[in-house]
Amino acid sequence: MCPRGEEDEAASAAGGPVSQRTCGAIEGGFPAVPPPCPQAGAPGSTARSPLRTGWSRFAFQDVCAVLVQACQLVSLDQEHLVSKVCQLIHHLLNRYQVMVDEQNLNFLLSYCISALRQCSSWTHVEILQALAALVYNNGPKCQKYLPDLLGKAGLLLQFSDPAQPDVELRRAAVRSMANLCLSVPGQPYLDESYRSVCFQTFLSVLQSSKTADVDDITFCMLLQSALKGVQSLLNGGKMKLMQTDQIGALLAVLKKCMFHGLPGLSIEVPTALYPAPLPQYDKRSPVKAEEKSCKGKQKKGEFGEEGREDSGDAGNESVLGADMLKLHLGDVQNSPGADPRPRASDVCAGKDPLSSHPTGWKLISSSESEYSDTEGGIQSKVRSYQANVRQGALACFLSTIKSIEKRVLYGYWSAFVPDAPGIGSPQSVSLMTIALKDPSPKTRACALQVLSAFLEGSKQFLSVAEDASDHKRAFTPFSVTIASSIRELHRCLLLALVAESSSQTLTQIVKCLANLVSNAPYSRLKPGLLTRVWNQIKPYISHKDVNVRVSSLTLLGAIVSVQAPLPEVQLLLQQPSSSGLNSSGSATPRRFSSCEQWRKALPWAGESPLDNPAGCAPPEPCWLLCLCVSIIALPREDSCSDSDANFPSLASVYEPCPLRLEALQVLALLVKGYFPMAQSYFLELGEVACRCMEEMDPSIQLHGAKLLEELGTGVLQQHKPDSPTAPEQRVPVSVVVTFWTMMLNGPLPGTLQNSPHATLQTSACDALSSILPEAFSLLQADQQILCVTLLLGLNHSENPLVKAAAARALGVYILFPCLRQDVMFVADTANAILNSLHDKSPNVRAKAAWSLGNLTDTLIINMETLGQSFQEELSDLLLLKLLRSATEASKDRDKVKSNAVRALGNVLHFLQPCHVANPRFREAIKESLQALIATVGSEATMKVRWNACYALGNVFKNPALPLGEAPWATQAFSALSSVVKSCKNFKVRIKSAMALSIPSRRECYGSTEQFCQIWSALVVALQRSEDTEDFLEFKYSSSLRTQICRALLHLLQLARSTDLPLIGGSLRDHGDAIKPYVLQYLRSSGEENEAGVHTDLRERERGLQGAIDHLSGIERELQGKARVRVSLYLEDVLTNHTNATELTEA
Prior knowledge:
Oligomer: single chain
Helix content: 55-70%
Low-confidence stretches: 1-57, 278-373, 580-590, 603-609, 611-618, 639-644
């Protein structure tokens, strides 16, 4: 056996013979192989591509053949030569990325495994390195060797055992195991048993501590290999972490490795973390006296030091401590001489951002600081390897987050996300500790990326947070704890923002802020958080790096889109354009003035009724709106010139394309969430959309069309009958007409016909469907015809996206008052929709079904307003096609079915006696009614069943249908009665009760038995009106009782003498139970039912009195034969109600 040091010398001495013997032996068949080069990364080595070193003349198979020949020549008892051959294998495969075919791989693997079994231990490291190179990306080809390597007595398990004294050997074994865990797309992965063995091995490595006899670099490499292995298992093996102990153990070691070697910090992490809603405390080493003494030496007001350097103090872990930072985040922008980006300016000036602030790094002892190290390259290399471990742990954490269910992950929130420290308590270490104090920009960026992944999709978890009111309780509620964590995250990220110098890391900080803003429940938190973010991000809009600028716009977009409209954001949008800007944002006011000049240069400037509409124009133009418009439409400025040359297309004229796209998206979000802020620029924003759609770049055109859609939708929302906006504050219809005239005379028609770009056509269709109906009627006739013609033509597009958008747009247009009365347009639209309803695309069919529902709504409106003339003009053949197509669509998937049954109800309501008597219609009517009845009682979604109940109610309104005597009527009443008693969804019950109360004549309810079955079902439903397993349904219970009581009174007003015995018996058994509900119905005045019908107290009383009068007359005719006088029961109810009302009024 040869010691490690002697082995290296022996290996060097043997270098010549190995090369000569190997090359000489194969001289006749293969070209000579150069001697082994130094390992990649070793001093003096240069990584060169094989194409530039003469290797291009060797095929990979030739190299494999050379390696096989070398192994055949060197027997296993020649250990020095075995070592050299393994070095050669490792070098060629690892450095030159040689792919080994399966036959040669089998031979070489067998050779290495045999060598591990037979050769002395001093050779094992080189053999394992060769093995690691061979199995890299070849895991699926190594299946038959897995028992030897990973079985119960597997070689890799032996060498990676924690008891293994040789750490180099252990590291090589773990690296081989990690390479085996790499996945190959399309190939089978490791069996579950092997995955479990590998995972436990990696976990034990990560849980181990460094001993005194192990050097730092070797230990770091060992940890890196284990982290890569875990990451491969999580990524390639799609490993799902389910068990709490498994998750807790992994998260504990990842947290430990995340801080490995971090200067100024030493923590002890338990072997496992456990899910808990409250903060988990970390045990840390005592504070060093010399670190404490440095605390007071920091200069005040230097933002470059605050946030990173102060966090080096291990004794004061609160990187946000007020005494250390000497600043409130809300006041940063108010410091007249403060520059929030001194590090960035240092970098621009060519200065070392850390050496320019030496005092801050005194918080880190000289032996730990990378920048105050006097020992040279060794310490620097150690720190580099430690940073790699931290980066590897964070990368592995990122994969872990994707492998854990979010609801499980958030149980560990407090272990990784900062929380405000209690009085006298230190700040717990978290991901933000790394983001604020790690000396490596790449590591800081990794931590922020992990935090972003943590925050992504956290809206439901964070929605419980609340601190709008000060709580004074003996305990801290969970909602307050989460709110405190959200506030701390804002503080940390804003500190990281002002302290960061690396553009890449700065981008990650802003993206992380955007993720936080998108998920935080600001309406439940004290205002002020968004104001701080808003004011801090403003200067970064003019940053030298385009990615920072793009992410800054993304953050602003998140602010204007979260829970819009928020009062705090409204105030921010109304701020003067110069508010919060310092010298670093000097380019921004110039953009505002340019934007104003551009606005004034427009042809209609000064004529627009929106220049100063009463009560809606802000005193100054909206800062964000002007910024976005200037970025999109104005030439770029020299002072904002971008250092990134990756966007050369229009670099000399406009801002880089990603920046313009982001500005367009922010503008669309601003219009969507805060339309009153944008409406004073309504025509100007239309001009922006026009210019964008005229450009050559399809992505700019697409977002221009989306902006146009948002502008149209904003006007539509404003002009709705129930809009809270006062009429005088709305965009005038005349301005809307001007707007759409500009669009239709501009690029919109051409965009709609731009067939190579289907997504663009789709967005243009959506935009065209957002036109205000009142404005459409005032457009010129040729423009109206243009719109309709374009949509009818696009309905025949071969692209499903375009066809779906066109079908939906036609469904919007069919409701326009000026179009729905045109029989020819109705017929053309109906045929187009029916064509789309048979499309193979489910999305097209769903949109067509929605439009079909709108079309049939139009039939009912026209029937009620135009009368018989419209019904006679509409083709019977078209009506039959509508009925049959809707019946067929009612058997489709739920998204199609919900609107198909709505259309069926409308068509059946529209039919006239001549249609019902027509033999061609008879079978279609029967099938459609059966489809409706089946849908009511089906297991479809609640939306489908609600629409089916609504549709049956519409059917009952048609007097031409033989409701009382037809067999299908019994089935319909039975289905509705079943639903009103037992459906889990209360809204469906309400709609079924409403349908049961629609027939206006007693004959429609059929026989006495059927009538009384309906009555009994409603009585049972009233008693069950509070029975539900879903707590969310309780809010509908009052509406349900109201509708059932209304239906019961309706039945009583129609009852015959033959119905009274059964009704009386029912009241005798259940009268006392339902009486409180009826009294409650009478008292609850001013409610709207599901149909939007408003009923007041007097109307309800009149309804009850009407039932009493009707029943009293019948009972008088019976001359006392009735066993229970129903009228007396109702009179008692009315008396109780009257007495209660009088007491209340008194």
